[in-house]
Every structure is written in structure tokens, then in C-alpha cells.
Amino acid sequence: MLAGGNLPDVIWDGDPGPVRKNVRNGFVMAVPPEVILKYAPTYVKQLNRFGRIGWAHSHWRGRNYGIPTYASADIYPHPLFWRMDWLRNVGIHKIPDTLEEVHEAFTRFRHNDPDGNGKKDTYGMCPSTMWFVMFAEFFAAHNTMAFEFNLRDGKAVWGGILPEAKQTLKLMRQWYAEDLIDPDYIVLDNPGKVGRFQNGRCGYQYWFHSYRSLDLSNPSSPYSIMKQLSPTAEIASAPPLMGVDGRRRGRVWGGGAHIIQFGKHLEKEPRKVLRVLRMLETFAAEEEVFLSSRMGQRGVHWDLSPQRGAYLLPPFDATQAMQRNMLNADTLEGAWAFFSFCAAPTEITQKYMPQAQVEYRHTYRRPEWRIMNVLGKPDATESTGKHLETLWLMQKQAYAEIVNGERDLDYFDTFVEKWFKAGGAILTREANEMLKALPGIYSKVGIHAEETDSRLNDYTEGEEL
What we know:
Blueprint: E1 10-13, H1 16-24, H2 33-39, H3 41-50, H4 54-58, E2 59-60, E3 63-64, E4 67-70, E5 80-83, H5 84-89, H6 99-111, H7 136-141, E6 149-152, E7 155-158, H8 163-177, H9 190-198, E8 204-206, H10 222-229, E9 235-238, E10 250-251, E11 256-262, H11 270-285, H12 287-295, E12 302-305, E13 309-312, H13 319-324, H14 346-349, H15 355-364, E14 370-371, H16 384-403, H17 411-443, H18 461-464
Parallel strand pairs: 10-14
Antiparallel strand pairs: 1-11, 2-3, 4-11, 5-8, 5-9, 6-7, 12-13
Helix pairs in contact: 2-3, 3-11, 11-12, 16-17
């Protein structure tokens, strides 16, 4: 459609790579940051607080090509989930908190018949092979993110080539050799991996569950499904693991979400751009308008209770009715609703959560535990389209072969050499160029030099809670 010249007024892309592609092909127009700041100051203030790294994703070669959005949910690390009944069945009464304790639990899950069926048919985990999830909690425990850029001594460095990544692979290789990891993890899709947890083959799960996964009042929740399969099943949550240096870390996206872009033809129709900015400003400044964009009218479409938080009323709570009317009570912190692409600050969204969910977040998902890509997303560099997919595939294959024992651990060093030669050196150079450009980009939108922190978005526990 775009290549044929049929350009929409508004284009919405989730990642920097597609934005740059649109720019190169002449599909979208530049939007000066000072215009955004002038017509949507409240929105920019919220964006700068929760997703400032998004400005790096809309900027390219010194110009800004769209309006970044933020997802306030993405500043919180994901919890870990355990079969608590399995832990008790194998003599463990404390949720594992360190790598050593995880290893012991996985060993007992494999050898001590946690489900009591008399068969050796259970494993510790069935990990995902998605780039941002693959052994991510264990890489974080070694203070690295393997498939994106980390900050080391003020410079952007690809986490997957660091010694910490090799140490993590050494540990995963050991666990695999000990038969603690489901060997089918390579071939299963992600629903299949989640199914291995729900149907009682594995006793641990990461990333694919949340607080609402534990809702037993919802017959479709993962916990409810697990209960149907095994009435004695009990899920327990856990915070990110205690790392090898005594600190907890959990990978997060960092708050920067998607980019709203405008078709090139709107250079002659700037009023449409200003109208979108007015919409964003209204959503940011007027809580009731924002709520109506997500949930409709209170008393008609939704209501609020301390136990349930905001919830949709019948008949709008049925999946088809919810989708048909574009209503959702679960996306107030997300940047992916139909009528409003922006999220809302946590001091607003938490008012519409169950009180138990607020407490759950404070217990298991504290923002000070976060570890994030120094550039927000790995495709933020100039040559991403040429190299990143190839490098990811090379890395996942090398990692899997090392973990599975097909290659020696020392093959990691060979992989690092290949990674640099296959485009990694180019992406690293460009990542550091962007890192140096961040203060200048931020200054255009009211973020002063003393506020700039290239490691993380700057928000404190007090601000969020």
C-alpha cells in the first residue's frame, strides 16, 4: 500500500527500524520537537518521565520523524512463577531466590517425582527462544542482557559478547547436561512452552504470565486452566533472582513504546498533525477523557471496586463484545489501544487496579530492579535493517549449540569474532554515536543535562507509588 503511494494520514510503528524505513522511502514527514512541546506540553512531560528513550527512536540523522509514545507498564520487571506445590512435594518450603537455589529446585523437580505420578517425566523449565526472553532472567542475574546493548564504562556494548554472557551459558550448559531443561525447548513455539508449565511438565515459568494470570475468578486464566488439569496445583510468584553480585535485576523494555508518524502529504495539511497533538495533550491532561478512550462510560461499560479494580460490565465483558466496542480495562498502562496510543502515569493507573495488584507489584516487580537496553530497543541504530536479524539468528544458534553440548563452551569466543565481522562492529559504532547524541536530543524536549541518564529513564520509587 505504501509503495503504491497510498499513504495514510497516520502511521503507527512499534520499533525504530520501520520508522527509519519509512523515512528512507519518503513515506513520512519530519515533526520538529519544538512543535510537539508547544502543542502537547503535558504529554511531553509524561513521556519524558516514563519513556524518554522513545525520542531516540523517532530521531534520525538529526531530525525527528514522529511522536514517541510510552507504556508505563514497561518500567516494571516481570515476575517469576513457580509450582509451589511441587516445591513442597520435593521438600523445599522457600521459593528459590538465587541461582544455586534454582539449581537445587530444578534438580529435585527432575529426579524426585514432584507430581507424584511415579514417572520421571518432569523438568525444571522449558525456556523460550524469543530474543528478549531466551535465558533472560539468568543473563540478568549475571548483570547483562544478551541480545541488546548494555552500558559499560559509559559505552554501549552488546551484552551477548560479554564475559558475563559466557558465564551464563556455562551455567545453562551444565543444567542442560544434567537434564534439568526440557530438551524440546528448541522446537516448541511459545504457546507450547507455556503449555508445558500449565499441564505439569515443568515447574517454573518466566515472562509469559502476570498478576492477572493468577485470577481464579477468570476461567480462562493460566491458573484456572492449571487447576482444571490438576486441582492441587498452586502457583507462587517471585521477584527477579538475586544476582551473582547480590543485586536483583530484571529485564524491562524501559517505557519507550511506539512511534506515531504522519504521511508525507501532511506537510501541506499541518492542521491534522496539530489535531493529533491536541488529542494527545487532552488524554494526558484530562483523566476522564483518557479513561473513556479505553473503557467507555462508567456505569454503562465499566465500573470500579477495590477487589477487582476497573472491570467491564456485562455484556461488554465478553471477548467479542469487548473487541467489537474496542474496550479494555487492562491496557491503561499500555501504548496499544485503538483510540489512544499513549498510556497514563502510574499514579493514575494504579487507582484503577485492584489493591492486591498494587501490592503485588511492590512485592515482585519493583522498578529499581530493572535492567534495560541503553538505547531502549536493539534496532535503534542506522544499519539495523542490514545486520540485526542475521546477528540475532547467528547468536541464538550459537547459544543453543553451546547449551545443548553440540559445541564446546570455548566456541563462544569464535562466535564473538564472527559477530563483529558479520556487522556487530558496525552496530556497536552506531550505538555509541547515538548514545553521544542523546543529550542533544533530550535538550530539544526540555530534558536538561543534569537530568540525563543514558543508562535508565529517570524516575524514582516515590514518583511511581
